[in-house]
Amino acid sequence: MKEAIRLFSTDDPAPLFASMIGVSYCDGSYHIRRTRSPLTVAEYILDGEGYVTVDGVDHPVTKDHVYILKSGVPHNYYSSAEHPWRKIFINIKGTLPTLLLKEYGLADCWLFDGAGLKPTFERIADLVFSEKSNEECQRILTGVFSELLMQLHRSRIRTEHAPEAVKLKDYLDANTQRLVGNAELAAQIYRSPDYCVKLFKKEYGTTPYDYQLEQKMQLARYMLRHTNMSVFAIAAELGYSDAHYFSGLFKRKQGACPKAYRNGNAE
Asked: Does the reported pTM lie above 0.70?
């Protein structure tokens, strides 16, 4: 078989970094076995047929499928000899991939419909032959991997929830910098505010307002832990013109004011 690959190494591994990317032109000899793999593997099947073994069962994986195999578990996958795979892959190391999979609700999934994801993986393939530095490639690849998980997360949500509810949630996610009222939200699907609130509560188990508030608090926690932004700047970023009001709201939700939270969770 043939492969076009690019290897990366680092003396100071980041929580998420690509160790290898490539394009595989498989044949009947292609078979990967790893016991307690240190890698998280993400692959997109361009064409051909093959199998991934999960819990002792061989599952067929064909064109436009994406599979993600987590680190820490056995990996076993192989190509058909009659119709061998051609695929793009990225091998990821570090502690963050497993956490990201959990946060995106993908920890218990491994096989996905990859329709629409080919351009994302082609960005990986382009770097195999690129003259960009390893550092620049790592920056791009960590972003691509995160983008891939977000795309898979959104795709899964769209199949699990009513299309109108998904549209509402997408609108809220795109407007975390301000508070979206029920009337404005309902206008996105040409429904009444009452219908909108009931639909959202049915699909997501919370009201639009409470969902927005939790998203804002999640972003606030992240910025307090990982940035040097002032409380005033964080409040403004989340759509609160009154930093004192924001601080009181944060304390009611988190049990500590923003400054105390930052001091207790410094990294």
From this structure: no
